[in-house]
Amino acid sequence: MERLNFQGLRRFWAIAKAYWWGDEKWRARGLLLLIVILLLGYTGLSVVLNTQRGELISALSAKDEARFWQTVFVFVGVLVVYAPLLAGYTYLRDRLGLEWRRWLTDRFVTRYFSDRAFYRINQFNADLDNPDQRIAEDVRSFTQESLTLVLVVASSLLEIAAFSGVLWGISRELVLFLIGYAIVGTLFTVGVFGKPLVRLNFEQLKREADFRFGLVRIRENAEAIAFYQGEEQESTQVKSRFMRAFDNYKRLLKWQLGLNGLTNAYEFIPFVLPALVVAPAVFSGDLEVGKVSEAQGAFIRVFFSLNVIVDRFQALTAFGAGIDRLHDFAESLGQIEHKKDAAELLATESDSEATGEAAITEASPATATAADATIPTTDTVPPQPLIAQATAPQLSLQHLTLQTPNYQRTLIEDLTLELDTDSSLLVAGPSGCGKSSLLRAIAGLWNSGQGLIQRPELKDLLFLPQKPYMILGTLRQQLRYPYPDADITDEQMHNVLKTVNLPDLAERFGGFDADEEWSDVLSLGEQQRLSFARVLLHSPRYAVLDEATSALDRHNEAQLYEALEATSTTYLSVGHHESLEAHHRWLLRLAEDHTWQLHALKGA
Ligand SMILES: Nc1ncnc2c1ncn2[C@@H]1O[C@H](COP(=O)(O)OP(=O)(O)OP(=O)(O)O)[C@@H](O)[C@H]1O
User: Fold this and answer.
1) Model confidence over 99-144: pLDDT tens digits?
2) Is it the case that residue 555 has pLDDT exceeding 70?
3) How far, in Å, is the centroid of ligand 1 from the Cα of 404?
4) pLDDT at 333 over 50
5) Domain end residue (candidates: 293, 313, 333)
6) Is 204 found in the same domain as 78?
7) What's the CATH number where 194 sits?
8) Ligand 1 pocket, mutate which of 408, 431, 435 (most atoms under 8 A from CB)
9) Is 408 found in the same domain as 323?
10) How many angstroms is it from 435 CA to the middle of ligand 1?
11) Candidate from 124, 436, 466 with most ligand 1 atoms within 8 A of CB, to mutate
């Protein structure tokens, strides 16, 4: 957490730069220029209005009717231009903020879905809370607040320039006093309130997001909670999340109270001081009485312009907290991209060596790739070995040692195997020995460990995870997932549904366009059969099935695997049922002590 200091500015610029120097830079800069032109016009007119206000009072006090009406005329004329100018300025500022938000959201969402960062992000930074809130909320406030603040500062500078001239003409002491007063006030406010307010605002954003997420989880797991009758615990949990936000806000309010007390007292002075300073000249007849109003108007404008930091301090600290959150998020995404690049580099090196299988197989597993298979070191992170990955026509694992993402446990040691394209492999072993983790490594989700994984391109592999995943959408989209543009006819879908023993599914829900909360309305076994239907429909080169039939009876399971055997898809399954052995050629048995055995089954 940073104070509003140079590091904060650097972080701000690191996020902002990409837009102002990126592909939409001319559009963004053009809009900004237009806004600044409107701002200039608006500030110029403010000076005229202020002078005319003084004129009005002077004309009244001098009982000069002609001068009075002339001033009114100018006043109205200026207002006719001033009002639309101000409205246009606000519109364009908000519009530019919105465009920037679209751009930045798009960029963060793209990065979040690249290299499966949404899955891996917490492996790199376990403290990174609520990425959803950072994308939805923090980006919005960052773009809007940035523009507002930059323009407030710009307009303050303009106003200082414009109104100091007016004030200088009336009283130099006032200008000098103002500058000194504003500097002291700003330094004091930043020094005393800066750090705690940024910290509390940061914490508030996090706690609000935790609270919201707690409620979203209840909605997503409503049935399980209802079965467990876990209402009491869940409601206590949600309330306690709210209380955390509440407690923090109470602390924030106390600091705001102090800040407001200070700023109110501090901002009181401009309302009396100019009159005190100008009064003697008015009494002696050197200045007209309207000058008091003019001096006061100019004084207030200059004062609030110089005082922009103190005045917007609460907003600035909230903004600072938002910058920190976005910066952490961008850093974590950067680490993932960095790690992917390192793994790709490794794979290229392994490729060129391993025409060269000998180079890999001869080395002992402990040293095979440990020397080069590391993420480049940073100041804080020690070098960590990585599994190299490469693209090849068929799946093979070479001296694979697999560890959990944080390197705390080794799950599999020195595993070497190759899966021919017309073959099939069953992975079995006790619960928790690392079967699903092996699939994660093959999918490239986990890469902590050593050795090399060669596999076809990821788009040629279809994975069915242990927990069936039903997307939001129609039955047709469900079946097409994850290839939404696949050329599949309704007839093919009907046939496949028959094969997986769901012949009347479409009719039951009113056709393939039926849109349901599928994970709620289908049984677990039905969801597994629907997921299996995806494999049969898309016929990928490789299918990787993680206990994909665990909820099915033997008859249904056999029916699905027989259908799969009839296709050209090479498949690899994880499963506990012994009956599965009949549908595979090879059996890989993993043990809890990290060892493994490979057995041939029928027809190997
Ligand atoms: N994200 C994670 N970070 C650290 N350890 C993890 C993580 N996910 C799983 N593990 C641990 O890794 C080990 C292997 O998990 P895995 O899911 O591969 O087991 P499995 O053999 O598929 O078990 P099961 O048959 O019960 O599904 C388990 O001890 C698990 O607790």
Assistant:
1) 999 999 999 999 999 888 888 887 766 678 888 889 998 999 999 9
2) yes
3) 8
4) yes
5) 333
6) yes
7) 1.20.1560.10
8) 435
9) no
10) 8
11) 436
